[in-house]
Amino acid sequence: MSSTFLYKLPVEQTQWKFDGQNTTSFTWEYEDGSADLLRLYGKGKKQQWDAAERIDWSLETDPDNPMGLDDRAIAIYGTDLWNRLDDKGRAHVRRNLQAHTLSQFMHGEQGALIATSKIVQTVPSIQAKFYAATQVMDEARHVEAYARLLHEKVKLAYPITPTLAALLENTIADRRWDMTYLGMQVLIEGLALAAFQRIRDTSSNPLAAAVNAYVMQDEARHVAFGRLALREYYPELSDAERDEREDFVVEACYQMRDRFNQTEVWQNLGLPVKECIEAVDRSEYMRMFRARLFSRVVPTVKDIGLWGPRVRRAFGEMGVMEFAQVDAQAMLDNDNRVAEDFDAKRFVTDALGSA
Length: 355
Prior knowledge:
Blueprint: H1 35-46, H2 51-54, H3 80-84, H4 87-122, H5 126-154, H6 162-173, H7 177-202, H8 206-233, H9 239-258, H10 263-269, H11 273-282, H12 284-292, H13 297-303, H14 309-318, H15 328-354
Helix pairs in contact: 1-5, 1-8, 4-5, 4-6, 4-7, 4-10, 5-8, 6-7, 7-8, 7-9, 8-15, 9-14
């Protein structure tokens, strides 16, 4: 079935084009370069996988709770508004919120697909081009996986949110290769990892958990790719150039934090939007979730050297400075281990089934 018929808002809102400026960078140096990037490229080649084969799409999902999430994750849970809903109404809210979340994952992955193809074109080193080429395939696979999850299991989708669209446009349209890295590999991918982790670690549905676990295994390499490249490049910037990138980080982080009010869902469901958004702002769960979103971003921003007063002040105001002490690499390593654990569990299940 065409995606057009799945969208709960006019499909025209999902389509947008914009002009961007790219500088194509050829290099004739094929040997001298980053050994770390070459190792990451080797890992990227070895960890390619087929979304149609690695994921068990025969697993069932609950139509009223496709991702198997606790209702306490719903911002209006426990409010008078929630208590007034009957079981059918609550199921409708639950399904639409989950469809909205998965839709943003799917749209964001398409943005990553486009951004990474641009990185292949614009980045100066051959080692970075090599790795970025593997990431293009990764991102295509992620779009495929989330699209299939939405089409076959949820059967509902939402357009891209205005804030995510704006961040993608700013990231992709900038002609400087490092700004595409910063926007995509550090900010968007970092925030996505935290959002994926919530489903991977709390979902009671094995299909939803597995999709996010396998996508996270790839995304962990992508964030590492951004860290390696920018950590080497940013010490060369002037103070003015570094200030510009720190301003971009601050603005993007505020945008992404504030986009998680799911206004489009409340509007589509005909619920009182103002009351719902106030519930989002009061929700202790949402406060904690918004903070946890930055558990992947803060240590990486610090690691690449964008750690001036304006960035530290913004993270302090958001209440996320505690994550500056997090071992980012340890989290990325754990993402890889968790994905391998999912493979091991499926191998055992398949073996028992065939015995």
